[in-house]
Amino acid sequence: MSANFLLDCQDLREKRREKRGGEQGGNGPGQLGGEAAQRAGDRVSGESKRPTVRLPTRFGGLPGPRLLVGSLATLVVMAPGVPGELQAAYREPLRGGRGAVAADHELASRAGAEILARGGNAVDAAIATALALGVVQPAGSGLGGGGFLVFRRADGTVRVLDFREVAPKQAHANMFVDEKTGQVVPERSRRGGLAVGVPGEAAGFAQALRELGSLPAEQVIAPALRLAKEGFPVGRHLARSAALVVPQLRAGHPLRVLLAPGGAPLKQGEQWRRPELAETLAVLAKDGFAAYYRLEPSAIGDEILHAVAAAGGVLSADDLRSYKPVWRQPLLGRYRGWQVVTAPPPAGGITALETLQILDARPVFAEGPGASSTLHEIVESFKHAFSDRARYHGDPAFDAVPPELGTAAYAKDRAATISREQVLQPTQYGRPQGNTPAQAPRDHGTSHLCVIDKDGNAAALTTTVNLSFGAHVIAGRTGVLLNNQMDDFAAQSNKPNAFGLVGTGANLVAPGKRPASSMSPLLAVAPDGSVLCVGGSGGPTIVTGVVQTVINVVDFRMTVEAAIAAPRVHAQFIPDSVLVEPEIAADVRAGLQRRGHRLVVTPAALETAVQAVFYRPPRAQVDPGATTPIPVADDRPAEPRGFSVAADPRKGGIPALP
Who's near 182: CB < 8 A, 6+ residues apart? Predict the structure, then answer.
């Protein structure tokens, strides 16, 4: 479990106390009610500033949501309880008429908004936002990693770009297994040179900008370059992350030098400059993203190779020369009449789509978002989809994923097995006669961002260096932190890993292979032409967070801010338990337990952070393929025409408008 989120929660509690000014908020656990959420607060100037808010006392019939953190892979609760007054306030979304950007750092959102204001499109702004995240939020993303982009033009054309890292050509299935003991050595895949996959972010940005963008690289890189060169105040998440990792590093370790320049870890509010990364960004601005892979002495690629080799890795010049992003066929489906567009394997979008289409084949929810009947249906659908994900997902170039998993017909078949009143036997989930389940990937160092521009073009981009600060390897004098994406492979077939989970051949290490991912950038298009852009960070909880946000917007007509702040549950088939945040009321939990669910009430925040933008066009643009009208679950109005944007308070995200 990452302690970053617990520390974030403690800091959030302090901020909420300051904003409340002593005001009491929230109801006791176990209370139910029918009121809509209460919102109040004074607006402040500046589009990316959060206003002072009053804590909501109710949420869709439930108490206001608290932020909690728990272990995902093992369901072992390791954090102390979070005080009862800790609550995530939500407000009306930030709204405007000329586009919107949502990221998990305010400065990154502003970088994207700046590009929109200068006439850039959604892809230009998405790349600018991601590059800025790599500067100000290096624990989660950066040029040393890779990810996925889902893009939809206003005319309905959709593209998906896979710039996921790949295993080096000298990688092999047993590279993380001790030759003497035959046991997996987890540290080999998590820290040091062997953990590093071939970085794909720079190549992906070059491809996306060339085919989908409208501005030159120099202009798109400019905001991130300015932040790295001139410096910026350290944010809460970075300060907490640095405080956790620095004590683990030996004196003189390059990452320790970076994160503790004065000897002590970076502190929130401290001004921090990244001159080496600024030089790297300046090279890319001048020569284009292709310069990242150049191999002449002292070039960026050469620095990467030397750093990985010195850390015991096997990355080669040929790996850098041959890396190519992949345009993939978008996954398309339907949910309640909305078209769903997401990224196929090795991304996790197929798990999100399968879940939504199973629910779509079920009757519409009879009760509200916090009811045990609603949560039971959602959890059972998760278990079907994660069962299939565990058994089959990997790089489709190596192991074909059964094509029916993303179809409505298959989802209907799985939906028919769900009982309203009880859980199924473990063998009844997922595709019949499946193979041994595999581990869920661990993308904890991830960042997601959403951009929709003034013309209605939408970009959902998720990028990662995997675990916090990746492999803890800095690429020489470039300032680039390299990923530890090799940890997303199954380290050994059919034997438990460090988390007690087993893996199969579909996600074993192989040269040139891309590891399975939970990243689920997703777009949903309503029958009237409205577009919801959503995605998240947080390993397997990316999928469950994204799905619940879609459900909250589509089924329950929540604003994007309320949809993101709502309490969540998480289930992933293995382990056979359901994580629930403590604001799920006692009688609701009892209803889930009566149906056979094994609940773990987490005392700290689920490791996920969702970002979302909602665009409602000036005039309805009826989708000719729509089959179902938009459901209305209560009397709250739909989002107004224009742009509504929100970022998850769990990670301190703040959106921006151009």
Answer: none
